[in-house]
Design brief:
Elements: H1 3-45, H2 60-68, E1 85-87, E2 93-95, H3 98-102, H4 104-113, E3 116-121, E4 124-129, H5 132-140, E5 146-147, H6 151-160, H7 169-179, H8 185-189, H9 192-212, E6 217-221, H10 223-239, H11 243-262, H12 279-304, H13 311-321, H14 326-360, H15 363-377, H16 384-389, H17 394-405, E7 411-416, E8 420-422, E9 425-427, E10 432-436, H18 437-440, H19 444-447, H20 486-503, E11 504-508, E12 516-519, E13 521-524, E14 529-534
Parallel strand pairs: 4-10
Antiparallel strand pairs: 1-2, 3-4, 5-7, 6-14, 7-10, 8-9, 11-14, 12-13
Helix pairs in contact: 6-11, 7-13, 9-10, 9-20, 10-11, 10-14, 11-12, 12-14, 13-14, 14-17, 14-20
Bound molecules: protoporphyrin IX containing FE.
Residues 164-165, 176, 179, 183, 234, 339-340, 343-344, 347-348, 351, 408-409, 412, 475-479, 481-485, 488-489 line the site of protoporphyrin IX containing FE.
Amino acid sequence: MDDQVLQQLPRIAFAVALVGILSMITRLCEVMIWRPKRLRGKLLKQGISGPPPSIILGNLPEMKRFSSEPQRGEDQVADGEAKIGNRDQDSRVITHNCSSKVYPFLERWRKEYGPVFMFSFGNIQMLHVYDLDILKEMTMCTSLDLGRPSNLFRKLGPLLGRGVLTSNGTQWAHQRKIIAPELYADKVKGMISLMVQSSMTLVKSWVDMIDRSEGGAADIKIDAFMRSFSGDVISRACFGSSFCEGEQIFVKLRGLQEALSEKMLGNDNIHGFRQLPTKSNRAIWRLEKEVWSLILKVVKEREGAKSEKDLLQMILDGAKDGHLSSNEMDRFIVDNCKNIYQAGYETTAVVASWTLMLLASNSDWQAKVREEIYQVCAGQLPNSATIRNMKTEQMTMVIHESLRLYPPVAIFSREAQQDIKFGDVLVPKGVTVWVPVATLHIDPDIWGPNAALFCPERFSNGVSASCRHPHVYMPFGVGPRICLGQNLAMAELKVVLSIILSNFAFSLSPSYNHSPVMRLVIEPEHGINLLVKKL
Ligand code: HEM
């Protein structure tokens, strides 16, 4: 190298660094300022308004402020409002309006800006849709141009990776094709006996607790039991192991769920914050690594054992068919296992808990469903035929009503992968659509004046006759991305509820404090305590 070039080196290095910094700043401006502004402009042109956002945080500060204001709970219900809840036998009013508690900001903005409005989740441009005609078109849309929001991966990557829940396009189609057949109704039929076994473990624990307690009734916090039940079913049915063997995976996934849900409205929504080595991010990365190793350990054990034709085997075979490198294969396996554990574990458990809370506070329905179980099961444990016979009966009506009042997945969300039109609204590519399912589920204009009451009889002629606009009832989602596990979940719920109801009578414990919260799914903040007696 001659002297002249050597002399120029610092200048060249400076120029390269400057170009690098400038392109980084340009990229940041594009992601955080210009793109959101362009998308807002396209929505504004159509007459869609919304709360004015700040440059970097969007509407996050207001969302956080509204969410931290005390919401009117059970103890704050005014006399004249008793009609919006059910009274339990102690005459406490349980208000079934979780949407105003978990997403108060959406309710406020809807009142101010109408059913279709925009807001900004950090730099993500959101479109809130509550117009029934637009919703009808949207629920019938089978186009893959309406995909899962890409920010789901950014927000929940450590929990879900790029599995079937978060991916889009051909990657998603490949994963769904592998998983779907293992969750079809005929496969679920073969899983009933192991659901019965898992339920009987729960019965034994409750009987022991009642025997140890005074007065023949035990005050039981039921949530962990419901999670053990659904975790056991998923582990055995899909992964060929038991809940005890997979327990560490569930514990760590729950830890990840809690840590990530705490960040939902925090500064981590600002582009790049999740990559910073803060204390909470480091804890999340540690948990993610631990889950990764634990799942690969289950996989290693499977490789040594004789091959079973279950969901895990399908995922392993699917990974081999995908022409992936060894590391990509591990990621495919881990991400999809995490998705199944997560999708099937928390949701079913929390629905079982809410349903028991509703039956505990409505003793007439508890008696009706128990009577039906006596008739259908005739003293035997449930099997696939008896579960099928409960298709349109009281049990199914109660589960539908529970899913209406407490849908675990409170928001139906999609991102426009291309510009896409519904009614008069053109949703520009990159905009995330939010449909507040929990709010639609208790709207009196849709369900009538008893919308916020527990009234399972509304489902006596099935979902399609339950209200004026049955397309808004979507506890399992709609369209091509509809829940793959709904047959499994419904069977699990019928089995565990049948077995509990035929062994125990229960009421709400005086210590129960009704407080639904959002931790990725709508959960009871303080758990659910029941007073349980043997029958
Ligand atoms: C009562 C329990 C359950 C509820 C309420 C529920 C609800 C949902 C919802 C709302 C979605 C999103 C649908 C959409 O965006 O349109 C979903 C997706 C999914 N669920 Fe469930 N789920 C439950 C149980 C299960 C179980 C037991 C499994 C399997 C083990 C499962 C597996 C899945 C999968 C794989 C997806 C992703 C489908 C896709 O993106 O293609 N779910 N579920």
